[in-house]
Amino acid sequence: MNFWRTWLYVPANNEQRVEKALNSRADCVILDLEDAVSSQEKDRARGLAVQTLEGSPGKPVLIRINAYGSPWFASDLEALAAARMTAAFAGVRIPKVDNLSALSQAAQILGSEIPLHPLLESAQGISNLYEIASAQPSIASLSLGETDLKADLAMTLDVALDPIRVSIILACRSAGLVPPPASVFTHLDDDLGLTESTQRMKSMGFFGRSVIHPKQIATVNSVFTPTAKEVETASALLDEVTSFADTGISAFLRSDGTFVDPATVRQARDLLSLNRIIKTELEDNSP
Fold it and tell me: What is each CA distance from 107 to 36, 60, 81, 174, 271, in whole angstroms?
């Protein structure tokens, strides 16, 4: 299971930006063949994306292909299926997934070993959320494309998406998937807004966030990295739980007045496990 804090989008046809992205502190990079690439550049972008994957990039790389029903969907999949992939290839992000058709064709062309990362960006996709979450064994994550989704639903308030956000968190949990990464924050010069929005997404149950510029990486990484105080508190709690191991007590009141039960212990263990992953696997992939 991958716990990436930052999913950095970069146009696959911009070689300088791809190199910069791969040398950034993003946990993974998404080479984009869709929105960031003009129709005239689609073939070139596809070729460069395959070339990047075959060149053993130093961190996990996903490819966002073009949408099902577009002239490039099958060609994108076939090129990836034929490529000589390295261990860095972390899967295919499929945009605008409305039903199971795109996932079925992707799994058929790519095989069952390539992870699929569907993006849900329409009312139809949300209505099929639970079926999409469990459609293929190769599905590795789900996420929302909130800009397109708000346009499809004619929403103007960000909080109007909250019920859908909760739904995708529930669907991922029900299907045994990692928590979904939050969608992009599009205001590049609003650092405070990015921090507040990301903290809010974390509090709702999201883990990680798609970002569209390297300047957003540090903020998002910081929000999703356990603080030293959180690690200290979780460690102290588990030490106290250990002292009760031989008594058969599974719930107790701490000296500070907080109540500890198995759910509290699980949260503490999950936090320490996440901290170990970040300190070993994720930081090892960063320059």
Answer: 24, 20, 10, 21, 33
Name the residue type at position 131: E
75-111, pLDDT tens digit by residue?
A: 999 999 998 877 889 999 999 999 999 999 999 999 9
Average pLDDT on 9-26 reads 97
Question: What are the CA-CA distances from residue 239 to residues 245, 259, 266, 269 (Å)?
Answer: 10, 15, 13, 11
Query: Distances in Å between the alpha carbon of 110 and those of 14, 74, 81, 83, 98?
Result: 25, 10, 5, 10, 19
Our CA dihedral for 228, 234, 174, 169, rounded to 10 degrees, sits at -40
Strands 89-94 and 259-260: unpaired
Whether the CB-CB separation of 31 and 47 falls below 8 Å is answered with no
Cβ neighbours around 161 below 10 Å, total: 17
